[in-house]
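Issue: ligand-bound run for fe (ii) ion - logging full I/O for the record.

Environment: standard queue, default settings, no custom constraints.

Inputs:
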Amino acid sequence: MSQTATIQVLGAIAYGEWKAYEAARRRAEETSDPAERKVWRTIAAEELRHHKGFVRRLEATGGEPERAMARYRASLDHFHGLPEEGDPVARAVCDFLGEGIATDLLTWLRQVMDPETAAFIDTVLEDEVGHEGRAIAELRRLIESEPNGRARSAAGARRMLVRMATSSPGSGPSFVAFLQIGNPLGLLSSLSGGYLRRLRAIGIGPLAPIDELNRLVRRQRAPRAA
Ligand SMILES: [Fe+2]
Ligand SMILES: [Fe+2]
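Outputs:
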């Protein structure tokens, strides 16, 4: 396994955990519900622990954390800086799918990393299972209580796919490093399989066949008529 690719991947994950921390902290500040604030504060503290742990693993692997994370900063800042969904159902489906992607990525990473990093990832996964559980419970509650909840969650899931497909500015993040460090097919099938499995779990999959996704991407990129 290439040390350079390992450092790049750890840099991407460490910065992704930082963005997850920022997002959870913002949610805690925004809510007026004390119980919800407590939940988001706990999640924020866990995401910060993940970030710091991956920074330590980066140093132990011989990487320079700031430099390793800098490579992914522009695209992750761009993705997380996009306007949030106004519809609470769509927002909840994005939370759920986002936590799921993190879980799938870390499950794959655990298999290709050294034993010490793998042991740290196990502790991260314990937290992420809890985050995903909270996210799906909230989404199911909204699907059942909001008018057209299922259709709105399906629309939110589609928009999230389009966001991910169109949000890499400039050169975009180097996903190549992920494919270089081991079991690339395992990574791709885990991400796509996990996405579909989660959509089915909430009763809205399969959706967004590729031609529909292409149409949505083209429409988003098309210049607007004056
Ligand atoms: Fe995390
Ligand atoms: Fe998380």
